[in-house]
UniProtKB/TrEMBL annotation:
This is Coatomer subunit zeta. Belongs to the adaptor complexes small subunit family. Keywords: Cytoplasm, Cytoplasmic vesicle, ER-Golgi transport, Golgi apparatus, Membrane, Protein transport, Transport. The keyword Protein transport applies. The coatomer is a cytosolic protein complex that binds to dilysine motifs and reversibly associates with Golgi non-clathrin-coated vesicles, which further mediate biosynthetic protein transport from the ER, via the Golgi up to the trans Golgi network. Coatomer complex is required for budding from Golgi membranes, and is essential for the retrograde Golgi-to-ER transport of dilysine-tagged proteins. The zeta subunit may be involved in regulating the coat assembly and, hence, the rate of biosynthetic protein transport due to its association-dissociation properties with the coatomer complex. Its main location: cytoplasm. Residues 12-150 form the AP complex mu/sigma subunit domain. The keyword Lipoprotein does not apply. One of its GO terms (biological process) is intracellular protein transport. GO terms for cellular component: COPI vesicle coat; Golgi membrane. It is a peripheral membrane protein. InterPro entries: AP_mu_sigma_su, Coatomer_zeta, Longin-like_dom_sf. The lineage of its organism: Eukaryota, Metazoa, Chordata, Craniata, Vertebrata. Oligomeric complex that consists of at least the alpha, beta, beta', gamma, delta, epsilon and zeta subunits.
C-alpha cells in the first residue's frame, strides 16, 4: 500500500469494545459500517482479537489488517481498533482516556459487575470521547466534566415513589422561593 496516496482523515477509530475475561461482549461500538457490517462478523472479529490478546502482555496488536490497542483490568479487556496505517499513539490516548474516565466513575473499581451497574455512564463516556470514529477528547478530566456523571446519585428506577415525590416537592419549593 502506498502511504503517500492516503488522504488524512479525522476518522481514526474504527471500533471500541469491552469484553469480559471469557471474551463475551459487554459493550461495542463500530464506527465504520463497511468494516464488519453484520453482528456475526463483529463477534467473530472480537473473538479472534480476544483469543490473540487475552494472554499477551503487549499493548498493541495487528490483526486482520487492523491496528488494535488493548488493556486489561481484573476481569475486563478494553480494545480500541484503528486502520493499519493509524498512529498507535493516538489510539493509545483514546484507550487511556476511556480507562481513566471509567476508573473515576467506578471509583477505581474497574471490574465487570461495577461496569454493568454503571452502563449508562460507560456509554456517555464512550460517546464523549469518540463520535462516529472521530476523537473528540483525550483528557479524562474534561470527559468527566462534560459528562457530569455522579455515581452516588440513584437513578429513578432505584428510588421509591416517596423519594421521587419528596425530591419533586423540594425542587418545586426551591424554584418558588427563588
Amino acid at each position: 500500500m502506498d502511504y503517500a496516496t492516503l488522504e488524512p482523515s479525522l476518522y481514526t477509530v474504527k471500533a471500541v469494545f469491552i469484553l469480559d475475561n471469557d471474551g463475551n461482549r459487554l459493550l461495542s461500538k463500530y464506527y465504520d459500517p463497511e468494516l464488519y457490517p453484520s453482528m456475526k462478523e463483529q463477534k467473530n472479529f472480537e473473538r479472534n482479537v480476544f483469543n490473540k490478546t487475552h494472554k499477551a502482555d503487549n499493548e498493541i496488536a495487528f490483526l486482520e489488517g487492523m491496528t488494535v490497542v488493548y488493556k486489561s483490568s481484573i476481569d475486563l479487556f478494553f480494545y480500541v481498533v484503528g486502520s493499519p496505517q493509524e498512529n498507535e499513539l493516538m489510539l493509545v490516548a483514546v484507550l487511556s482516556c476511556l480507562f481513566e474516565s471509567l476508573s473515576q466513575i467506578l471509583r477505581k473499581n474497574v471490574e465487570r459487575r461495577c461496569l454493568l451497574d454503571n452502563m449508562e455512564g460507560v456509554f456517555l463516556i464512550v460517546d464523549e470521547i469518540i463520535d462516529g470514529g472521530v476523537i473528540l477528547e483525550s483528557d479524562p478530566q474534561q470527559v468527566l466534566q462534560k459528562v457530569n456523571y455522579r455515581v452516588d446519585e440513584n437513578p429513578l428506577s432505584e428510588q421509591s415513589v416517596a423519594q421521587v415525590l419528596q425530591s419533586a416537592k423540594e425542587q418545586i419549593k426551591w424554584s418558588i422561593l427563588k
